[in-house]
Amino acid sequence: MTPQSRKIYLKGLLGGLPFMPVLIPFGLLFGVLAMDAGLALGQAMGMTMLVIAGASQFTALQMMVDNASFWLIVAAALAVNLRMAMYSAALVPYLGAAPLWQRVLVAYANFDQTYAVSVAAYDANPNWTVSERIAFFFGVATPIVPVWIAASLVGALIGQAIPVNTGMDFALPITFIALFAPMLKTIPHLVAAAVSIVFGLLFATLPSGLGLLAAGALAMFAGAVTETMMLRRGKS
After folding, report:
1. What are the transmembrane regions (predicted)?
2. Which of 8, 68, 121, 122 is most buried by a 10 A CB count?
3. The pTM is what?
């Protein structure tokens, strides 16, 4: 790692630290709920280490409690996590030229926080090389991944000593707002956000995260149509 890449890595690490106040209580809560759902310690830690996605993990746990079938649980988790595929596609222009082993690690650590912080930094620093972008991405992931896993382990070990009804359910949406609100800089972005809010509320009663998936698809379509119309008007 060059001195410049090391400097950018540390910058990314600092960018990941502000998420600790949200990650720690949610990791603890996941560990507690995993034990309450009847998972063994190894099963709970296997889920949190392989998935690293709180929303889908909580969805899967709830469906386990409801005695849903295995394939329905998998389908629901995939539906909730489908946004990660969108994140991966959006990262290709920035990181697509990186070596395969680095792209594999990026895929593992690609979640809301690493994606949002990294893309914002890439847009603000268009002169960064691919290796420097990789360094920043891994810097953001460095504090997040081990803290999420460690907090889940502590929650699983402590179990009932941590109250399940912590009132921390507000923290996750606040995190999403803090991540993406500064990125709403254009009219297509605002249109997509408005459509996602409206249809997210309308589809809130759909099962297995399908409402979120449908709202996201409609929001992307609305944003793309708005951008296309603006480009056509600009050329006319």
Report:
1. 12-34, 40-58, 70-95, 134-158, 170-203, 209-231
2. 8
3. 0.69
